[in-house]
Amino acid sequence: xxxxxxxxxxxxxxxxxxxxxxxxxxxxxxxxxxxxxxxxxxxxxxxxxxxxxxxxxxxxxxxxxxxxxxxxxxxxxxxxxxxxxxxxxxxxxxxxxxxxxxxxxxxxxxxxxxxxxxxxxxxxxxxxxxxxxxxxxxxxxxxxxxxxxxxxxxxxxxxxxxxxxxxxxxxxxxxxxxxxxxxxxxxxxxxxxxxxxxxxxxxxxxxxxxxxxxxxxxxxxxxxxxxxxxxxxxxxxxxxxxxxxxxxxxxxxxxxxxxxxxxxxxxxxxxxxxxxx
Length: 277
Hints:
The chain is mainly α. It has a single domain, classed as Orthogonal Bundle (MetI-like fold), CATH 1.10.3720.10. The protein has helices at about 1-5, 10-30, 45-55, 55-90, 90-100, 110-120, 125-130, 145-170, 175-180, 185-215, 215-220, 230-240, 245-275. α2 (about 10-30) crosses α13, α4 (about 55-90) packs across α8 (about 145-170) and α8 crosses α10.
């Protein structure tokens, strides 16, 4: 046991240096004023006050939450039928389709987003194809449509995998019992399959919503800098303006919002399990 415990020490050190220390630094910067001299640094709530009282930042926050929720809803609507169909197939066929869905994730997300820039731009693949039929070019790049499309494309595999895992673990005898009791396929799905797959849906919602609400490079590339989300503001504060204090305050506020959303999804899942009991 001691030998296995000692094997965890390198990971614990890595986690402390690369996770705990940066989080403590963000916490410190968020509650202090901007200053180069340690003696002039003071604890303050001005960074949070500035963020939550500025209409521009609140507008960006609302837009970020809306885009994240919209992306999550689209991923659920598209991902559930795909996961359901794959789960109904044989084992070998399911492995093939899951591999096909996860294959794009082997490529860096930034590269995949750059590929969408070439597809959606005015002289891209889609508009070139439309031009063959005499249809004028459609402006898709640097729009909210492009941002949502990029997020859905990058994050929907997480939704499909979670829902598929719940569907494949489901006891098929429940469906047989529902059929014996006279339920048709639709009733069996609504009363048996859907409730039992909700844990996978909730896990998928968490895995999609969290990166979507804080993503910055997809809006930057597909939005062309004209579609600013909260992640872009954090990036600007850290890398462009150098105001680490304000950027840390926004990051900490977003962390609280994300943890609260995780709590809500977990509570919904827990309440559902208690209702089943």
